[in-house]
Design a protein that fits this description.
It is a single chain. The protein has 288 residues and is of the alpha/beta class. The chain folds into three domains: 95 residues, 3-Layer(aba) Sandwich (D-Maltodextrin-Binding Protein, domain 2), CATH 3.40.190; 76 residues, D-Maltodextrin-Binding Protein, domain 2, CATH 3.40.190; 81 residues, Alpha-Beta Plaits, CATH 3.30.70.260. It is 27% helix and 32% strand. Strands 1, 2, 3, 4, 5 and 11 form a six-stranded mixed sheet that branches. It has a five-stranded mixed sheet with strand order 8-7-9-6-10. A four-stranded antiparallel sheet has the order 13-14-12-15, covered by helices on one side. α8 runs antiparallel to α9. It is globular. The two termini are 30 Å apart. The relative contact order is 0.16.
Length: 288
């Protein structure tokens, strides 16, 4: 781990909300160096290959739900979750030249952002072409090149690409928030940045994957130990298990640390109820 450069990989290009999440967690303008990559899979690959010490990826949005590509990568990865960020998401309609707003022929953005502005777009631009691209910053770049293209993105992207905000805060839900995960190859990666690193703080969260047999009552048997041990669940999602048709894996986040007595009791009870349990990491819960 010590050989990995002091660098954090994120979904680029610069100006994305992932970029903003990196700045919120590590500090704007502070180390580590930022490494922009083209997709979420490449964030995982950069950290796994040792080209970056950390990776930051979106995992869920309060409006659009889970980010499936991140969940699929978590199934296969050996990385550990070492932190989380909740980032309020404010979308704006950006153009190169506001005086030519009537010439706009298409609106581009990431598909999650288009979904988060669905009602506004239907009301304001019901007949215009909507195009999803790899990121909001990529959308801003396209808008900067073409006066007939508008982008949905944040203020950071507007500043970075020299665009003008013509409509601000157009997201359908004003409390729109995305949760991001901070990934590393092991808990020691944050030793210099968070204290204590990998140890219980009393304000922790743990994320696990649980594989179950495909038979009635499987989910109940998984959830019962959390109720018995009074461990609060904060999230549960289901994705198809890749290695067996019509089998599923449960993503479960819950309050507490892997070293807490109540959590240890949950794991003991789960051992006889699940085919496989993968611990993705225990980490301090995001505050605020």
């Amino acid at each position: 781990m010590s050989d990995a450069p002091e660098r954090v990989a994120f979904l680029g290009p610069p100006g994305t909300f992932s970029h903003a999440a990196v700045d919120r967690f590590f500090g704007a303008g502070a180390a580590p160096e930022r490494l922009s990559v083209s997709n979420i899979d490449d964030v995982f690959l950069a950290v796994e290959a040792g080209n970056a010490r950390f990776g930051v990826v979106p995992v869920e949005n309060s409006t659009e739900g889970a980010v499936n590509s991140t969940q699929d990568c978590l199934i296969d990865t050996s990385l550990t979750i070492v932190g989380e960020i909740y980032l309020p998401i404010e979308h704006n309609l950006l153009v190169r030249d506001p005086s030519r707003l009537a010439d706009i022929r298409r609106i581009v953005s990431h598909k999650q952002s288009l979904g988060q502005c669905r009602i506004w777009l239907r009301a304001q631009y019901p007949d215009i072409e909507l195009c999803d691209v790899s990121s909001n910053a990529e959308a801003a770049r396209l808008a900067a090149e073409d006066p007939a293209t508008a982008a949905i993105a944040g203020e950071v992207a507007a500043e970075y690409f020299g665009l003008q905000v013509v409509f601000a805060r157009i997201q359908d839900r004003k409390n729109n928030t995305t949760r991001f995960l901070v990934l590393a190859r092991d808990q020691a990666a944050l030793k210099q940045r968070r204290e204590p690193a990998g140890l219980a703080t009393g304000h922790d969260k743990t994320s696990i994957l649980v594989y179950t047999e495909n038979k009635p009552g499987a989910l109940f048997r998984v959830l019962e130990p959390f109720d018995t041990c009074q461990v609060s669940l904060t999230r549960i999602e289901t994705r198809p298990a890749r290695d067996d048709m019509w089998s599923y894996v449960f993503f479960i986040d819950f309050e507490g640390h892997i070293e807490d007595d109540a959590v240890k009791s949950v794991f003991r009870q789960l051992a006889g109820r699940a085919v496989k349990i993968k611990n993705l990491g225990s980490y301090p819960r995001a505050r605020g």
